[in-house]
Automatic annotation (TrEMBL):
Belongs to the purine/pyrimidine phosphoribosyltransferase family. Its EC number is 2.4.2.8. This is Hypoxanthine phosphoribosyltransferase. Residues 9-159 form the Phosphoribosyltransferase domain. It catalyses: IMP + diphosphate = hypoxanthine + 5-phospho-alpha-D-ribose 1-diphosphate; GMP + diphosphate = guanine + 5-phospho-alpha-D-ribose 1-diphosphate. GO terms for cellular component: cytosol. Purine salvage pathway enzyme that catalyzes the transfer of the ribosyl-5-phosphate group from 5-phospho-alpha-D-ribose 1-diphosphate (PRPP) to the N9 position of the 6-oxopurines hypoxanthine and guanine to form the corresponding ribonucleotides IMP (inosine 5'-monophosphate) and GMP (guanosine 5'-monophosphate), with the release of PPi. It is found in: Cytoplasm. Keywords: Cytoplasm, Glycosyltransferase, Magnesium, Metal-binding, Nucleotide-binding, Purine salvage, Transferase. Pathway: Purine metabolism; GMP biosynthesis via salvage pathway; GMP from guanine: step 1/1; Purine metabolism; IMP biosynthesis via salvage pathway; IMP from hypoxanthine: step 1/1. Its main location: cytoplasm. It comes from Insulibacter thermoxylanivorax.
């Protein structure tokens, strides 16, 4: 598995340091509230687990699974909810935890859904951002790392469902795609 990686962009330690910072920031900005942190499955599962450990205020967690139709490495913007939230978001402060923002289409769809359900507030924490891929005007409220416009795997992110369990984020060797 490690042999398939061309370059490690951020190590496990760098990721954990960044997540600690994000957790501290969210904890202070949401002090006195009880936000619902929503994990967007599957890609954000690892980030969700590590981030919520670094949030020091009371929170609740929930999970949503979505799929976007189209090619496997590009978002089409047509999003389908495979698993919905267990709890209503009406009147709640909601924080969406995402692995990566690329075109922004998935998140803009999700934000729209949550706002139509009358969430009190909706913010986004994304561990990775690929601004070069953006198709809609969308900026996450909290961002871990800005990445170059390459397809990345590891730390929850997959290629054909593999590599999610790498503890770091890296670029796949081109021959793996072939
Ligand atoms: P959009 O384009 O809607 O996409 O912002 C967000 C979702 O697309 C996936 N994605 C990636 N997955 N390596 C991956 O493994 C990548 O480089 C990559 N770029 C986008 C991801 O599921 C994300 O939630
Ligand atoms: Mg995802």
């Amino acid at each position: 598995m490690h042999n398939d990686i061309q370059e490690i962009l951020y190590t496990e330690e760098q990721i954990q340091d960044k997540i600690r910072e994000l957790g501290e920031k969210i904890s202070s900005e949401y002090a006195g509230r009880n936000p619902l942190v929503i994990c967007v499955l599957k890609g954000a599962y690892m980030f969700m687990a590590d981030l919520t450990k670094r949030i020091t205020i009371p929170i609740e967690v929930d999970f949503m699974a979505i799929s976007s139709y189209g090619q496997s490495t590009k978002s089409s913007g047509v999003v389908k909810i495979l698993k919905d939230l267990d709890v209503p978001v009406e009147g709640r402060d909601v924080i969406i935890a995402e692995d990566i923002v690329d075109s922004g289409l998935t998140l803009s769809y999700l934000i729209d859904v949550l706002e139509r359900r009358n969430a009190k507030s909706v913010s986004v924490v994304a561990l990775f951002d690929k601004p070069a891929g953006r198709k809609v005007d969308l900026q996450a409220d909290y961002i871990g790392f800005t990445l170059p416009d390459a397809f990345v795997v590891g730390y929850g992110l997959d290629y054909a469902e593999k590599y999610r369990n790498l503890p770091y984020i890296g670029i796949l060797k081109p021959e793996v795609y072939a």
